[in-house]
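Q: I have 57 residues here and want to know how they pack in 3D. Can you give me a structure?
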Amino acid sequence: MENNLTLFDKVWESHVVKRVSGGPDILFIDRHLVHEVTSPVAFQGMKERNIKVLFPR
C-alpha cells in the first residue's frame, strides 16, 4: 500500500475481503448506519434473500 493514500483509500483498503477481476471489490462492513429513507429498503432486501445481520446490536 502506498504512503500517500487518502483517508477514504485507507478505510476502503482495510475493508476489502476479496478483489474480483473485472468486477467490484467485496467489502466487509461492520456497521450499517440507518437512514430513514434507504435503510428499510436495504433491510427488506436482506429479509427477502434470507440474509441475516452478522453482528446485530
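Q: Anything worth noting?
A: Residues 3 and 10 are 10 Å apart (CA to CA). The mean pLDDT is 86.
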